[in-house]
Amino acid sequence: MTDIIEPSRAKRLKERTHEVHEVLDRSIMAAASFETLAGYVRFVEVQYRFHRDIAALYADPILSALLPGLAERGRLAQIETDLADLGQSLPPTAPPAFTPGAIDVPAALGWLYVAEGSNMGAALLRKAAAKLGLCDTHGARHLAPAPEGPAAHWRAFTAALDAVVLSDAEEERAAAGARAAFAQVQGRHGVALA
């Protein structure tokens, strides 16, 4: 008898969020965020709102113990600087989705899966931003790749994510968290995240 190998948590999350991810990807195309500087500003404002929502996750000590190097992965500061480069003040926001001390770890893992996964698509968005005259040091810092490259950066994250032990109920909360993250960006903002 052969053992059945379960797909990794990252692959399971990808499968379980495929539909909502596809809806968001279609909105990216519809929003034409990289055709004009004004469209790009709207895109960066969306990034700001999403990353502000999850900033507490990158500073959480429990999540940091589970996902080494998590604090260094946060991109809120780069997004704030990108907005300043573009002559924009920080947009108004609702209260963040997560606050320190009140974090459901499994759900947070799902949200982080979405945030960190968006780095893989950022390479294409970075090229589109360059056509608007933006770069890794002006206006598009948050799209810059990690020093080790986006693929290695993603593999390190997913290896740590996959190593976290969760019960079946916690797995469900992680998947629900990932779907909620995609849906929040889609529903509240209507454009893509990176």
State the share of residues found in helices, binned by percent.
Answer: 55-70%
Number of helices: 9
Number of strand elements: 0
CATH topology: Heme Oxygenase, Chain A
What features would you describe in this structure?
The protein has nine helices and no strands. With 194 residues, it is mainly α.
A few lines on this structure:
The protein is an all-alpha fold. It has helices spanning 9-16, 18-31, 37-59, 61-66, 70-73, 76-85, 105-130, 150-163, 168-189. Helices cover 65% and strands 0% of the residues.
List keywords for this structure.
single chain, globular, 194 residues, Heme Oxygenase, Chain A, mainly alpha, 0% strand
Topology:
Blueprint: H1 9-16, H2 18-31, H3 37-59, H4 61-66, H5 70-73, H6 76-85, H7 105-130, H8 150-163, H9 168-189
Helix pairs in contact: 1-9, 2-9, 3-6, 3-7, 7-8, 7-9
